[in-house]
């Protein structure tokens, strides 16, 4: 069986964790305010712990209004500390209940991205880590073969931010905060900017992606929201049109964005047909993840599949053709679900 049902209480705990994360302010852990005197004047700063590092930011000169703002922030962080204790308890219970989780190394990366605001500006996790989180969301634990990965895929749609006020997050700085050894992976064409980061000698890798719509560009696309260059990927827009919050069961919980499970499943069917022969193993994993999701959704939320299929009707002909081709590799009882 690709999926094993989690105990009912574990599934309920996951929903509680997401609710607490959505209502929590920026976690007060690692946040401190301090002053500096410069030429007889007092100035306020804030220091934040991000990953393994710390960042300092200037807040302004000392005024009653600023002191009042800082005091309100301290009060919010104090209230959030209680939430953090409860979230930590929920995470411990989730892990004990066999929920999907991540390694400590992966958690540092996700936490640094979350604290940097990468998910607040629209960043979305679209790879196997998203699939693992969907298991907790749907109350199942996947077979380890279907969740095994060495990559974190972070995506955002560059088109959404065009013409809007700048809301930027430095994803490279966030990754270095998680581990100072992170560095940009050189592109195959040395004239092109990097779209991925990793640590020398290790397999962990973070790829930055964005949709490819229209004619292929000459190289990576500048993704202003994350202050990074992104690899353009055909049909990624289908995933990013419908995202939702999800929790990582580690520490006090980490909130991120993931695609709709139903769209993720259909996109995996398409992706399985777009991979080159050298990536046949990844294509098989695509089918495995799509199969696992569709089996659970067909039982729990069949309407979600219909909605995702409705959205697929507005996609290009090539998308629908490859969706049908991918669906032909599904078990017989699931093929009937993919009606185009």
Question: Can you lay out the helices and strands and say which pair or pack?
Answer:
Elements: E1 3-5, H1 8-23, E2 31-38, E3 41-50, E4 53-61, H2 64-96, H3 104-116, E5 124-125, H4 128-138, E6 140-142, H5 144-147, E7 151-155, H6 171-178, E8 182-184, E9 196-199, E10 205-212, E11 221-223, E12 228-234, H7 236-240, E13 243-248, E14 254-259, H8 261-274, H9 280-300, H10 302-312, H11 317-327, H12 332-335
Parallel strand pairs: 7-10, 10-12
Antiparallel strand pairs: 1-6, 2-3, 3-4, 5-7, 8-9, 9-10, 11-12, 13-14
Helix pairs in contact: 1-2, 3-6, 4-9, 8-9, 8-10, 8-11, 9-10
Describe this structure in words.
The protein is an alpha+beta fold. Helix content is 44%, strand content 23%. The protein contains twelve helices and 14 strands. It has helices at residues 8-23, 64-96, 104-116, 128-138, 144-147, 171-178, 236-240, 261-274, 280-300, 302-312, 317-327, 332-335; strands at residues 3-5, 31-38, 41-50, 53-61, 124-125, 140-142, 151-155, 182-184, 196-199, 205-212, 221-223, 228-234, 243-248, 254-259. The strands form four sheets. Strands 5, 7, 8, 9, 10, 11 and 12 form a seven-stranded mixed beta sheet that branches. Strand 13 and strand 14 form a beta hairpin. It is globular and about 75 Å long. The model has no long low-confidence stretch (mean pLDDT 87).
């Amino acid at each position: 069986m690709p999926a094993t049902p989690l105990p009912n209480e574990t599934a309920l705990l996951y929903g509680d964790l997401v609710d607490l994360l959505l209502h929590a302010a920026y976690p007060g852990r690692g946040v401190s305010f301090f002053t500096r005197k410069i030429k007889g004047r007092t100035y306020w700063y804030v220091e934040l712990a991000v990953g393994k590092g710390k960042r300092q930011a200037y807040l302004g000169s000392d005024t009653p209004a600023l002191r009042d703002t800082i005091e309100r922030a301290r009060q919010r962080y104090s209230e959030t500390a209680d939430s953090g204790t409860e979230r930590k308890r929920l995470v411990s219970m989730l892990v004990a209940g066999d929920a999907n989780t991540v390694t400590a190394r992966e958690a540092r990366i996700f936490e640094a991205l979350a604290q940097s605001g990468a998910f607040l500006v629209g960043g979305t996790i679209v790879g196997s880590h998203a699939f693992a989180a969907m298991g907790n969301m749907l109350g199942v634990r996947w077979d380890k073969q279907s969740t095994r990965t060495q990559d974190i895929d972070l995506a955002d749609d560059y088109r959404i931010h065009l013409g809007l006020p700048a809301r930027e997050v430095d994803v490279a700085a966030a990754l270095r905060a998680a581990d100072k050894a992170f560095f940009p992976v050189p592109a195959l064409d040395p004239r092109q900017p990097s779209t991925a980061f990793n640590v020398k000698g290790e397999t962990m890798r973070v790829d930055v992606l964005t949709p490819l719509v229209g004619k292929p560009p000459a190289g990576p696309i500048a993704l202003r929201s994350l202050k990074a260059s992104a690899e353009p990927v055909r049909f990624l827009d289908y995933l990013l049109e419908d995202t939702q919050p999800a929790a990582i069961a580690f520490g006090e919980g980490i909130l991120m964005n993931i695609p709709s499970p139903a769209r993720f499943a259909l996109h995996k069917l398409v992706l399985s047909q777009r991979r080159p022969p050298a990536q046949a193993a990844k294509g098989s994993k695509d089918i495995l993840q799509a199969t696992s999701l569709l089996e659970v959704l067909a039982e729990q939320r069949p309407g979600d599949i219909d909605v995702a299929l409705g959205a697929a009707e507005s996609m290009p002909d090539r998308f629908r053709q490859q969706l049908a081709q991918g669906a032909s590799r599904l078990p017989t009882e699931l093929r009937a679900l993919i009606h185009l």
